[in-house]
Amino acid sequence: MKFLKVEFPVNIRNTEASMSWDMPKFEVCCQKFDDLSEYDYGVSMLNDGKYGFATVGNVMRLSLLRSPKAPDDMDDMGKHTIRWAIMPHSGQLAAQTVHAPFNFNAPLKPAEVVSG
């Protein structure tokens, strides 16, 4: 019955995260990214599909592991590999920020090209 989170205080002054009006109140499911922005600057937190985010004030939190005992008492047990990244950006939340987590979760892989 433990919950593991990581948190990052950022130098952003905004009362609401870019993702949801619920963000300042509750953890919400945003399994790829969270964003907190001002007019000319923002910070996105990217991840590889973890449970959710909670942003309160200027502290961004990402939930990494949870260990409930019901309905599955083995949930989140064992070894885990977790990837996340902090991505500062200029301007408010925009298309480039929204595309970044998809690139983070599905990076290009080099392939050998054999010509005929």
How would you describe this structure to a colleague?
The chain has 116 residues and is mostly beta strands. The chain has a domain at 3-70 and 83-91. Helix content is 9%, strand content 33%. The chain contains one helix and six strands. It has one helix at residues 95-105; strands at 3-9, 33-37, 41-47, 53-56, 59-66, 84-90. The protein has a three-stranded antiparallel beta sheet, with no helix packed on it. A three-stranded antiparallel beta sheet has the order 2-3-6, covered by helices on one side. A hairpin with a 3-residue loop joins β2 and β3 (41-47). It starts with a strand and ends in an 11-residue tail after the last helix. The model has no long low-confidence stretch (mean pLDDT 79).
Task: Assign an overall shape.
Answer: flat
Percent strand: 25-35%
Number of helices: 1
Gyration radius, rounded: 17 Å
Biggest sheet strand order reads 1-5-4
How would you characterize the largest beta sheet?
3 strands, antiparallel
Broad structural category: mainly beta
Order of helices and strands: EEEEEEH
What is the helical fraction, as a range of percent?
under 10%
